Amino acid sequence: MLVTVLAAGLAGDVHPLAALARGLRDAGHTVRFATHRHWRSVATQTGLDYAELAGDPRAVVTDESFLRVLEAERRPDRLAAAAVSAVRSLARRVEWQSNTGLRAVIQLARWYDEALMNDVWSACEGAEAVIYGAPLAYHGYYAARALGVPGVAAFLQTGHPLDHSVPGRRFLGQQIIWQIFRESITRWQRQTGQRTAPFLGPFPRWHEERLPIVYGLSPSVLPEPDAVGGDRHVAGYWFLDSALGTSLPAHVRDFLAAGPPPVYFTFGSLATSHPERLTHVINAALAVTGDRAIIATAWGGIGPTPDTDSVLCVEELPLDLVFPHVRAVVHHGGMMVTAEGLRAGRPTVLVPTVFDQFDWGNRIAELGVGPRPLGRKELTPMRLAGALTATREPEMVRAAAELGTRIGAERGVDHMVKVLDRVLTSGRDVRWRKS
Predict the structure, then answer these.
(1) Under a CB-based contact definition with an 8 Å cutoff, are residues 53 and 36 in contact?
(2) Quick one: pLDDT at residue 182?
(3) pLDDT tens for each residue of 20-67
(4) N or C: which end of the chain has fewer CB within 10 A?
(5) Got the DSSP string for 170-238?
């Protein structure tokens, strides 16, 4: 069976779906992996056919307007002020738009989404099934419907507007997202001779038909979403092992061998407008605790720092290879870096910035595998030092190790491939009639 897997966004959005795609390929399917050009190597190195999707995720998350929204955290007043600032900034840079900031952003989103929808359609043509991640839920849903083939949503967290397993979905949140994309999707539908989507979106039909949802979540970490069973499935995380290589660089191995296990710091794909401040906080906290450290600058979340006998600065490392060699991890709370740290059985300190990162931080504290999360705005050297000290507590170390053992035994990709084989070949409630 030819299966198209649609993956858009950052590493935490793309890598798990690549792992799932590789599992499908190993099970005998032909898999076409559609993602941004930035992640092309993830597809090719995994042995998947590649199809390109519009967009540059790194350009988005390092843009000053995006950083304002991130740094607003969860406070409504900060988010509102940051959103207004981002709107104005984008409006100034999009010369062909009107002077109305909100309209400019909506038009820009629709212009980009029209290119993305066309790429999605090209990637899905000829496919016998479509699997789509949350960022492309609308696109994948309607592409599968147009082809008359099975379509399955692959979510990496609960709470997506199309996720009918969570009761009481917020109508306003659904409509804000849907109305931005509606015009480009309906225009594409008219161009391809399809029946256009309803003005209020696919939600009633989605709920009625209960299309399949698979979750890349660990039942050891989160309680199963409501109504799991039937067409909703949870079996464990989807790990793409060694996505950045099969061995650690020699200088990293030498550093690890030269002393006690270090603490690993990373903020992954999320940048910040003041990375030097975060670097100062980290170095000052390390001076208090005496920890060795590996600091990953990645896309600009942490500023570079000179290498010393106790601190090694890198750009990025394969987390599945380095985490087993550290004593604790400190990061922003992206879903997959959280999963990697928990699988390695290491205590975790979260410094969340936005959205679900706060939820992961609270859940880690509830599980006893890390201290309470430290919001970026409240982060100081002494608070970070206190959190690092807490990760040495024997009870926390033991709880983290036990959780890591359970997660390692789940084999989420293998289980989910078996589920998808059943779903995609059954045809029950997942095939569409072409409109």
Answers:
(1) yes
(2) 85
(3) 999 999 999 999 999 999 899 999 888 899 999 987 766 665 555 555
(4) C
(5) -HHHHHHHHHHHHHHHHHHHHHTTPPPPPTT-SHHHHHHHT--EEE---TTTSPPPTT-BTTEEE----
For the chain, give every residue range classified as CATH 3.40.50.2000.
2-64+100-237+411-426, 250-408
* Rounded distance between C-alpha atoms, residue 16 and residue 39, angstroms: 12
Task: Encode pLDDT of 367-422 as tens digits.
Answer: 999 999 998 878 899 999 999 999 999 999 999 999 999 999 999 999 999 888 88
pLDDT tens digits for range 141-185: 999 999 999 999 898 876 654 444 444 445 666 677 787 778 888
CA distance 118 to 147: 14
pLDDT digits (tens, 9 = 90+) for 348-362: 999 987 767 888 899
Long-range contacts of 179-186 (CB under 8 A, 24+ apart): 180/106, 180/109, 180/110, 180/113, 181/109, 181/110, 181/113, 181/138, 181/139, 183/110, 184/110, 184/113, 184/114, 184/116, 184/117, 185/113, 185/117, 185/138, 185/139, 185/142
Per the CB < 8 A criterion, the answer to whether 331 and 370 are in contact is no
In the prediction, which pLDDT does 165 show? 45
User: Would you identify the CATH topology of the domain 2-64+100-237+411-426?
Assistant: Rossmann fold (3.40.50)
Query: Which two tokens mark 37?
Result: 């050009």
Task: Decide which of 3.40.50.720, 3.40.30.10, 3.40.50.2000, 2.120.10.30 is the CATH code for 250-408.
Answer: 3.40.50.2000
Task: For CA atoms 134, 137, 139, 144, give the dihedral sign.
Answer: positive
